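Write out the 3D structure for:
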Amino acid sequence: MDVKNLNEVAPFTTKDGSEIRELLAHRNSAIRNQSLAEARLPVGGATQEHFHPRAEEIYYITHGTGKMRIENETCVVKVGDAIAIPPGTKHKLWNTGGEVLRLLCCCAPAYEHSDTVITEA
């Protein structure tokens, strides 16, 4: 049985600059076709704009508030919001609140640095 506790998973930095804790993926469990991680952005922080040629993502905001841009659309995001990010779409997330922005990220197929294309300097 694969059970991972968020407080026991070591963080790492993704290619877009997010600090994540990968809870379940092919690297640490029996899961083969997706990944689940928690990402954290500090107050005033942001990811680099990027896209994933293969993976689709779902972001689910658990703490804080932010601004999300997907292609040319921007909106405010808050606790309880789920955000669909289709493969190949440029996206960027900013923490606009007064606390660490925390979100769950589900990627299918699983997150890989090699499937991340940075689109800003």
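Residues 53 and 88 are 5 Å apart (CA to CA).
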